[in-house]
Amino acid sequence: VSADPRARGAVSYSVDASMPGELHAALVRSPIAHGKVRSIDVSGLASDARVLLPQDVADLPAYGCQIADQRVLTDRARFVGDVVAAVVAPTPAAARAAAMSVSITYDELPAIFDVEKAAAEDAPLLHPHLTISANDAAYFGIRPVPETNICHRFRIRHGDVERGFEQAEVVVEGTFRTPSAAHVPMEPHATVARFTDSGRLEVITGTQTPFSMRMELAALFGMAEEDVRIVVPPMGGSFGAKTFTRQEAVVAALARKTGRPVKLVLDRAEEFLTLNRHPAVITVRIGASRTGELLAKSVVCWADTGAYADCGPGVVQKMGFAAPGPYRIPNCWVDAYAVYTNTPPNGAFRGYGQMQSAWASERAMDALAAKLDLSPLELRRRNVIADGDTYATGETMHDTCYRELLERAAAAVDYERDSRGKGIALIMKGMQTPSRAAIAIERDGDVYVVRCATTEMGQGARHALALLAAEQLGCDPSQIRVPDPDTDQVPYDTRTTSSRSTYMMGRALTVACEALLEDGRRGYGAIENVGGLDPDTGQGLASTHWHQAAAAAHLAVDEETGVCELHKLHCAVYAGRVVNRPAAELQTEGSMCMGLGSALFEALALDGGQVTNANLSDYNIPTAVDVATMTYELIERDGASIHGLGETALPPVPPAIGNALASLGLELDELPMTPERVLAARDQRSHSTEAEPPRAEEKVR
Amino acid sequence: VRVSFTLDGARVELEAPEEQTIAEALSHHGHRSVRETCRIGVCGACTILLDGEPVSGCLLLTAQADGRCVTTVEGLSAHDPVIRAFSRAHAFQCGWCTPGMILSVTAMLAEDPDPPRAKAARELGGNLCRCGCYSRILDAVELAAEELRSDAHR
């Protein structure tokens, strides 16, 4: 085996990109959570530095992928870390010093940090007027609630939920909370950009969304999309962090002002201020017959999108339409809201709302099972959705695998023999619908060059495409080249998100390969998946296919310290068909690993809107010791289509662990499940008059 | 300060600012594989070997390397057993943490040619991989250990 460039340290990421004559940028961020800029003093600026102020970009319109609520620089800070000014200097160190020399005063405004308080009618408004973005990421019918901080509300109205609850003999209700979390890509956000002599804007940046960004930057600078070029080197991780337009806008504005190429690499603390995961408060109510047949479910999701919407409306939409869960429920209502608060913006994060949704709903399922005196496994068996069933969106389910996933997860922890210390959870995750993908292939002698916008962040999608192309063209994978995406060179693709690329680009590739085989030299393929939901009723087609998984956890708790010891964590994931085995396994393992972090210890700490753990010492991520008890299986079926695997194994992990704790009488409703919370649940259990005394729970010495 | 050290087998002399870290110095020197990431010695992405010992490049001043021997992954042979093991085990996704991992594993196997998996996992606690490739990284440790042992027997 020849050494992979990754094993030689020979990968060139965005941080390595440079343009001749570049200046280095640094950002000046607000130290307060909400306030109008009163004055900016730049008299201390070094002579070799230049500064960009809000008035320098006053001609540039507001932007944002779903709601146009951001400015390149803001004269009204809405979170601690909001970018008010920017500087350039000959070196990164000089730029950082120059940023420190800019002195800004503010007139403070009332700030709001709690999602439910922010949604109240009398809450101070972050954005008094909301304009829906013209970007193609705002495709699904965004419904801001005027005169509130709610920038989107999504509903499902399926059946008659009131009647369903009347019929129900057993009803449970609970409110479940999840905190914000950081993506922590090892490579920070990094961009270099310039305006060329002919007036084009060229941007080299790590992003999952080159065409959305091209559209946004073109609109921002009043240019034709053709005059904006986005080049995307491999990313040192992203997990949703590098989506839509982030630092690219201010870097381009600096390049415009200085007439020089400008490079910006965010520092580690800034990563925690750039984009995080939506905290959510979700109230679930489920009604069932005595025999455990689900009759009604209502879910209310409050998702905190931070100071700017970013793709928060999209996140709550998916959080909302997965809230019914993979079960037959004749009556189901969902109300999901994205709400502004004075905290760093939240957006796409591996799992895209499903983790929050599954944490609430799958914990509630186990509470229902307990009330029915039924095994959580049996309750799920009686209700799990299958091919031909109607989902809460009205769509007919197909290519489902839930029965098998459930049984495999249960078997992995020998759940039926003894369910103490064990928990299971099921999840469903939609794939971007509608969306488009296109790809071009050219033959040059023995080499085939594949041109597509699928970006590389470690997930191996482009290698998967090379394998698929080799199979269809009857050549060796080494004959396939897949250059870095460059919007000047590749056809339009919606984006590299929602675990869609191997499936969607793979289908476009099949068309392109057939065309090439016919033509001999060139082939082109484009496909589209069609669908979408009515935002007011949630009826329609949520996803052309569903990403499906089950997790099972087996653990013991040291009730003196509250520490959980995982004996086993297993995920069964429906792959349909595996294209690139190592990458499919790595994505599954990586998702489980991130899910474990979310389950047990990862949370952004905020105090008065200030992130207080913005470093890798205070914000812990999983290490090699955390994976020892993880196992997984990828389920394939003859003739099945490819199902994306980039995120599927993350969302079921926290509820499986939560349900394992619940099996010991330790009821947790908030993530992460820290030892402190486990001890509080222990105390709650011993104070509860209703709860039976715990049965012989396992204990670690 | 004037500093001279051996970098991947070649002698290097340079003028370094007093507060400059070795990771910065190597990056200026074109050694991209040493990646300053957390800057507080937690993540291991800037790991170098200093006279064979793994050290966080973000916590070591360039001046402290004076007269010492610095190894990066760029100085290892393409046929290096640890590099080969990482490739064979597919022990990476984005590849950012991989050079630091490889150097930590190299040092670990020099100390203990056959570390139990749990011990290897503990010893790699100072190398973070956000892609979560840990179990394949531990597979790579086993593959490399096997190859190194069979090389030693030959």
Tell me, rounded to a whole number, the average pLDDT of chain A: 96
Largest sheet of chain B: 5 strands, mixed
Secondary structure tally, helices of chain A: 15
Helix content of chain B: 25-40%
Can you give a write-up of this model?
The complex is a heterodimer of chains A (701) and B (154). Chain A is α+β, with helices and mostly antiparallel strands and 701 residues long. Chain A has 15 helices and 27 strands. In chain A, the strands form seven sheets. Chain A has a seven-stranded mixed β-sheet, with helices on both faces. Chain A has a five-stranded mixed β-sheet with strand order 7-15-14-13-8, with helices on both faces. In chain A, strands 16-23-24-27 form a four-stranded mixed β-sheet, sandwiched between helices. Mean pLDDT of chain A is 96; it is low at 693-701. The longest helix of chain A is centred in the C-terminal third of the chain and has 20 residues, at 581-600. Chain B is α+β, with helices and mostly antiparallel strands and 154 residues long. Chain B has helices at 22-28, 81-88, 98-111, 117-123, 134-153, and strands at residues 2-7, 10-15, 47-50, 53-56, 69-71. A five-stranded mixed β-sheet of chain B has the order 2-1-5-3-4, with helices on one face. In chain B, helix 2 crosses helix 5. Chain B is globular, with a radius of gyration of 15 Å. At the A-B interface, helix 13 of A face helix 2, helix 3, helix 4 and helix 5 of B.
Draw up the topology in text.
The complex is a heterodimer of chains A (701) and B (154).
Chain A: E1 23-29, E2 35-41, E3 50-52, E4 76-77, E5 83-89, H1 92-101, E6 103-108, H2 115-118, E7 150-158, H3 161-167, E8 170-178, E9 190-195, E10 201-205, H4 210-221, E11 228-231, H5 248-258, E12 262-265, H6 268-274, E13 280-288, E14 294-306, H7 312-321, E15 331-340, H8 354-372, H9 376-383, H10 402-412, E16 422-430, E17 435-444, E18 447-451, H11 461-473, E19 480-481, H12 501-519, E20 522-529, E21 532-533, E22 540-541, E23 546-558, E24 563-576, H13 581-600, E25 606-607, E26 610-611, E27 630-636, H14 653-662, H15 675-687
Parallel strand pairs in A: 1-12, 10-11, 14-15, 18-19, 24-27
Antiparallel strand pairs in A: 1-5, 2-4, 2-6, 3-5, 7-15, 8-13, 9-10, 9-12, 13-14, 16-23, 17-18, 17-20, 21-22, 23-24, 25-26
Helix pairs in contact in A: 8-9, 8-14, 11-12, 13-14
Chain B: E1 2-7, E2 10-15, H1 22-28, E3 47-50, E4 53-56, E5 69-71, H2 81-88, H3 98-111, H4 117-123, H5 134-153
Parallel strand pairs in B: 1-5
Antiparallel strand pairs in B: 1-2, 3-4, 3-5
